Amino acid sequence: MSLSIAQPISFYDSKKGLYSWIFSTDHKRIGLLYFYAISGFFLVAVALGVLMRLELIAPGKTIMEAKTYNQVFTLHGVIMIFLFLIPSVPAVFGNFFLPIMIGTDDVAFPKVNLLSWWLYVIGGLFALSTLIVGKGAADTGWTFYAPYSVRTGTNVTLAVLAAFILGFSSILTGLNFIVTIHRLRSPKMGWFQMPLFSWALYATAWIQVLATPIIGITLLMIAAERVFGLGLFDPSLGGDPILYQHLFWIYSHPAVYIMVLPAMGLISEMIPTFAKRTIFGYKAIAYSSLAIAFIGYFVWGHHMFTSGMSGPARIIFSILTFLVAVPSAIKVFNWVATLYKGSILIKTPLLFSLAFIFQFLIGGLTGLVVGALATDVHLHDTYFVVGHFHYVMFGGAGFGFFGALHYWFPKMFGKMYREKTAQTAFTFMFIGFNMLYFPMLILGIMGMPRRYYDYLPEFTTLNVISTVGSWILATGIIIMVVNLIQSARKGEKAPENPWGGTTLEWQTASPPSLHNFDREPVISPNGPYDHS
Amino acid sequence: MSEFILVNSGHNRDDEASKLGMWLFLFTELLLFGGLFLVYSIYRYLNADAFLHASYNLNVIMGTVNTVVLLTSSWTVAMSVTAMQKGNINLSVKLIYATIFFALVFLVIKFFEWSAKIEHGLFPGMEHLNQLEPGSKLFFFLYYFMTGLHGLHVIVGGIILGFVLFAIRKKRTNPGKYMFLENAALYWHLVDVIWIFLFPLFYLIH
Looking at residue A505, what DSSP letter applies? Predict the structure, then answer.
């Protein structure tokens, strides 16, 4: 009995060959497979976004027709939502780190995990196939609103089937995580000794399991309408298009919490590590994750204030929407309080975390503006909504994802990234992001409607600023990607615990061995963030 | 030096975990049909009379027979699990065959029901259905969609039970290790429970 294993074999080297990857049941390999696929889809959708901004650099037709523009924003939305944001944090970092952080060697159902990866691949292929078969990609927007989605000649059927399959993949991931957290925690780790990232994933997993089936059945109904001529949502056949909107948002509002809650969990991991302090208000953060997941079910009507709903219903949905802001604000308060009097180490992951707090604040507060009845009537379907949504989803969930990518890069790839280049990339991204989306908030208040390829001349200046911002942001992303690829190839070798983190993944080798732990993990009785 | 293995390894056998996973999956199935029940109740509320008229076109006797068939199959699959727990593999296998047999009977009756409707032109896009009032059309849209999706679940449930038979033959499912059978039976009960709701919604409410 001694620490005789000086160099444990990492999970990269334990098996070789393509099949050992694509049919692997190891949670770390599956996490990496997701990572490569998700990054690929993300870059495609970024390119589409840059093209849209280029179209909007001047009024009138610039580089594409109106219909092409509709198809581009639909594909941008479908890829970003269903192929990037929803799987991103749970499928990549959740798969890779959840088992390690709760002190075990895999998820509860490793084979189901592999199945959900394959469903993701098949769903992704379905989504991309809309580009080449039939009459072109869907032009409905990612919301697939009926009755247009039933009547348009474009490839809506394939697109909704893609979303259905991806939903199934997401359900299986959520199911796996719930069972993993219940059954596989280290025997010495109680619920309140779990890292907060696991809490965030736990809350998210329940939303994935309980909300996703609703979108599944709704999209199947759309497909059946198109294929068999049912008229469930087509008013000319007796159906009710408003009902479609209800069903769609019953899932899709909780879905935005699927996207942002895990990212909040990431921030709760990074801030204590770089402030060298235990997290402020551990239980408040854990419970607020559950509260957001719970209240998030009952706010879907706020997407439909202008679609025709009774007065009392609108007031109730508006009040509930304001209620969700409370647990979100609790988290922001706790993160800031954790930094207070900390001994702060400024590294790229912390910069992304701080940008998250700043941008999520703007996204959250503008959310209240559109959650209030009087202002929403004015701002509905304007660029204000586009700005708000991107501040939460990209400025929040996206930046959280990139922060965690730098934070865990040494653990995942066994190499250190180059700090200076990473900070340069961050600076470009932060400036570009705000330059891209802040003008949208103003444009929305001025009354520019969304989803048009054209606009009135008085909106030109702000649109030009926004488009230039998209170039700066894209430059930042390119620098980041190149930096990470180069670092993964020939970066400095990473030590076991480069940041002085206290959660269990820092007790494993970088990169970990196949079974994660080569010795019994040490679990502090003072909770996961014991920096004393 | 032997490799270090955690006590709480994800590769250990854990029957509790399998059961928990299965129940979570059943929740998702319930919510899948829950969305349809929601659509049904709203359209029924908006088109009460038209739904009533349309429901007279359904054959209550065939529906009742099918309900009895499915309930019986739930009974046989439950007995099969008990037989396996008590170590009687032979009886357990026979009861699974009985369950699959009832599943086939259900599908055959369903097939005759549907083809009778289609002969009368009562299918989306067909003449007779097109002449109905909008509310009655909705009734038939929902009828085909919901019983069709349920029928698909009957087929899937039957196939899963077929896999269980295979696992029993390969001795992977045995009296000491019967979670696969139990989960398949749980799924079968779900198929049954959903029908218990579909039957009154379409055939009985007057």
Answer: G
Average pLDDT of chain A is 94
In chain A, count of helices (H) and strands (E)? Answer: 18, 0
Instruction: Count chain A–chain B contacts defined by CB atoms under 8 A.
Output: 135
Measured CA to CA, the distance from residue A89 to residue B101 in angstroms comes to: 45
Hey, are the CB atoms on B31 and A214 less than 8 Å from each other?
A: yes
Say if residue A251 is exposed, middle or buried (CB neighbours under 10 Å; 0-12, 13-18, 19+). buried
CA distances from A193 to A273, A523, B29 (A): 16, 9, 33
Cβ proximity of A100 and A195 under 8 Å:
no
Closest to B144 in 3D by CA, of A429, A136, A221: A221
Cα A405 to Cα A484: distance, rounded to the nearest angstrom: 9
Domain residue limits, chain B: 21-204
The closest of A118, A124, A134 to A172, measured between CA atoms, is A118
Please report residues of B whose CB lies closer than 8 A to that of A214.
31-32, 34-35
Q: Which helix (H) or strand (E) holds A122?
A: helix A110-129
Return the amino acid letter for A129.
Answer: S
User: If you search the block for the tokens 């009460």, which residue do you land on?
Assistant: B48
pLDDT digits (tens, 9 = 90+) for A222-251: 999 999 888 889 888 888 999 999 999 999
- pLDDT of B2 reads 53
| Vertex A323: Cα angle to A319 and A325 (nearest 5) | 125
Residues A156 and A226 sit within 8 Å (Cβ to Cβ): yes
Chain A residues with CB-CB distance to B27 below 8 A: 209-210
CB B123 within 8 A of CB B129: yes
Report the alpha-carbon distance of residue A462 to residue A390 in Å, rounded.
17
Residue A219 at interface with chain B, using a CB cutoff of 8 Å: no
In chain A, the domains with their CATH numbers are 27-507 (1.20.210.10)
Query: What is the assigned CATH class of domain B21-204?
Result: mainly alpha
Q: Do B145 and A230 touch (CB under 8 A)?
A: yes
Contact assignment for A243 to B145 by CB distance below 8 Å: no
| B36·A186 Cβ contact <8 A | no
Measured in angstroms, the CA of B103 and the nearest CA of chain A are apart by 24
CA A205 to chain centroid, in Å, comes to 13
Q: How far apart are CA A317 and CA B156, in angstroms?
A: 39
- Element containing residue A481 per DSSP (H, E): helix A460-490
Check if A217 contacts B (Cβ < 8 Å).
Answer: yes
Q: Tell me, what's the ipTM?
A: 0.93
Segment A475-526, tens digit of pLDDT: 999 999 999 999 999 999 999 999 999 999 999 999 999 999 988 899 988 8
Chain B touched by A169 (CB under 8 Å):
no
At A503, is the secondary structure helix, strand, or coil?
coil
B61 near A CB under 8 A = no
Q: Are A291 and A327 in contact (CB under 8 A)?
A: yes
HSE of A325 in the Cβ direction (CA atoms, 13 Å)? 17
